Amino acid sequence: MAQLHSGGNLARKALSGTGLRVIATGAAVAMAVTACGSGSSGSSGGDSNGPLTIGISLPLTGDFSQPGGEARKGYEIWRDEINAKGGLLGRKVTLKITDDASSQDTVVTDYTRLITQDKVNLVLGTFSSLLNFPASAVAEKNGYLYVEPAGGSPQMFTRGFKKLFFAQQATAGHQPDVFVNYLKSLPADQRPKTAAYPTQDDPFTTPVIQSMQKQLEALGVKTVYTTTYPADATNFQTIASAIAAAKPDLVAQGAVFEDGVGLIRSMQQLNFSPKFLFQTSAPTNGNQYSDGIGAKNTEGVFYTVSWNEKAKTPNNDQFVADYKKKYDNAIPAEDAADAYATAQVLQAAAEATKGVDQTKMAEWLHSHTVQTILGPLKWDATGAPQSQFLLGQWQSGTPEIVAPKAAATVDSAVAKTPWQ
Amino acid sequence: MTQLVQALALGLLIGGVYALMASGLTLIFGVMNIINVAHGALLILVAFMTWKIWSVTGADPILLSILMTPVMFGVGWLLYKGVLSRISGSSPGMSVLLTFGIAITIEGILNVTAGNKFRSATPSYFNQSFRVAGISLPKAQVYGCIAALVVLGLLYLVLTRTWTGRAIRATAQNASGAALVGIQAAGVAALAFALGVATTGVGGSVLSVLYPFFPASHYDWISRLLGIIVLGGMGSMAGALVGALVLGLAETLTATYLSLQWSTLIFYAVIMLVLLFRPQGIFGARLRQDVIA
Known about the structure:
heterodimer; A: alpha/beta; 4-stranded parallel β-sheet; 12 helices; 14 strands; disordered N terminus; B: mainly alpha; 2 strands
C-alpha cells in the first residue's frame, strides 16, 4: 500500500501512536542483539551447489498479518517463477519462512536463528518499519544484505547501515512530492487555496503529511486545520465537523485504513465534500476501500502508491498473471508486489555479482539501478531509495495512475465529485 | 454552544454503543469471575456473519441482530458447557488464558474462512445524518444507540423481573447462599455466560455498520471494553453504562476542545483517578477478599 513505508497496510495501525516507543524498543532490541551477536562475517553457509536457501520472517499472524500474508504470496510467486527458469545462479531457490506474530522480539529471534543456526544463504525483509527496524539490525550485525519490502520510516536510514536497502521508490518524507508536483502543474486559479491536514499518529503517515504541509505552504496554500489522532481512534465526527467548519479546498489525510474510511464517512454525514481529497494509504486497498465508503464516493480521491497492476514495468504482466492464476483470479495486493520487487532486487544483485557474497552485492546495489515491477529503483549510501512514487487516483470505480507520465494508466486526473 | 451540544450528543451516542458491547463482558465477570477476553473476538465474529448475510441478502445489518442474538446465545451456551465449565472454580487468571485462547482460535478461523480483509456493512443510511436544530446525528449511530438501549433495557428486565435473572444475581452475590436455596450454580453459570455472549449478537451487528473490521480488530475492542468495565466497576451493569458514556464523552469533548490525540490519555487518567478513590470502580461492590487484601 502506498505508504509502504510502513508495511503497506492498515493493520500496521497497532504500532502507531507510538513512534518514539517503537524506535526506543527497536533500538533496545537492536542493542541487545549487538551485545550477544556473533560478530560480522559477511559470508553465508550452505552447499554451493545445492539449493539456495533464503530466510524470511513475516508477520503471518497478529496485527500485521494482512500485509504479511500478501508479502508471503509475492515472495512465493517470485520463487516459483525463478525456479521455473532454472533457479538463481543455477541453484534451486528454497524459501524458509517463519512467523514472527507481528512481534519485535520474535522477529529478532527469527532472523538470528535463520542466519546463525539455519545458516541461510540470503535473507529478505519483513513487513512494517516496526519489525524491519530491529530485523535489519540483526542482518547488519551479521553482515547480511537486507532488502526490505516495507520500512520507509526516515529513522530506518539514520543508523549508518551499509547493507540495508528499501525496495520502494522513496521514503516517507518524499512520498507527497508527486502530488505536490501535480498541484504545481495546475493553473494557479485551479490550485487549492486552503488545506486541512488530519493525520494518524503513525511513524509513517505523519512525515508524509508534515512534508506535504510544508511544501504546500511554500506554494501559498494556507493551512486552515491540522490535527493528529491516535491509532485507536474510531469515531471521526468531531474532526469532520471541525474540517467542515474550516471549509478547506484540500483535505490531505495521513490515513492508514479505518481512519481514512471513518473520516470520509463522517464528512459524508455532514455533506462536506472538499474539492481535493488526498489520503496516504487507505485508498490503495482496492475493494476494501470502495466497499467502505461507497464505490461512487471514490471518484477523484488521490493517493500515492508504489505499484499498479497495469504498469508496463519489466515482468509485471507475468507477476500479475501468476498471482491471478494461483489465487483465484484476485488482483495482487500492493504488498505482494512490493515483496516480489524486493526479491527482484536481491536477484539482480546476486546475478550481477555472480554469487551470494553479501558485501559485494551491497556494493553493487549502491552503485546501480535495478529494474523491478515497481519501476527502476536506486539508493543512496544509507539505503534510502531515490525515485518517485506513483500518483494514484480513483476514476470510475478503478484505481488509476495519473503521474508520472511514463507510468500513467490514464491521460489525466479528474475532478472530485460530490458525495453520492 | 452548538459545538458543545454536538459533542455531548455524539459522545452519548457513541457511549451507548460502547455500553452495549461492554454489558455482556461485565455480566459474565459479575456472575462467574470470568474475564472473557474472547468477548471482542465474538463481537468481530458476529460482525463478519452480519456482513456476510447483509452482502448476500441485503437484509438490514442492525435488524439482523434479532437473528444473531439467539445464535450467539447458543454459541455461548456451547462454549460454556464444552470449554469454560472445565475451569469452574479456578482463578480468574485461568479464565483469561482460556478465553484468550478462544479469541485467537476465532481470529484464526475468521482468517481462514472469511479472509484477512477489512469489511464493512454499508446499508443505505450508513453515511447519512439526522439534522436536529443544527446538530448532526449520524443515522447509523442513532440506530445503534437505540438497539443498545433496547438490549440494556431487556437485560435489566431479565435480571430483575424473572426468576432466572434473580437466580443469576443471587449467584453473583453469594454462590453458596444461592445453592442453599436450591439454585443450581452450574446451570445459572451457563445461562449467564450464554446471556453475556448473546449481547454480542447485537453489539457485533451494530459494529459491522459503524466501524470497518478485520479478524484481528478484536484486540482494539477488548482493550477498550475492559477499560470501560474497570472504570464502571467490574460486574456492574450500571457501571458498564457509566464507564461507556464517560469514554464516549471523553472522545468527543477532547476532540472538540483539545485534540483527539488526548482522548485515550484522558480516559485512562479518569480511570486512574477513580481507582485511587474507589478501587472497586464507580459502581463495583467491594468484596471481602478486596478488603482483606
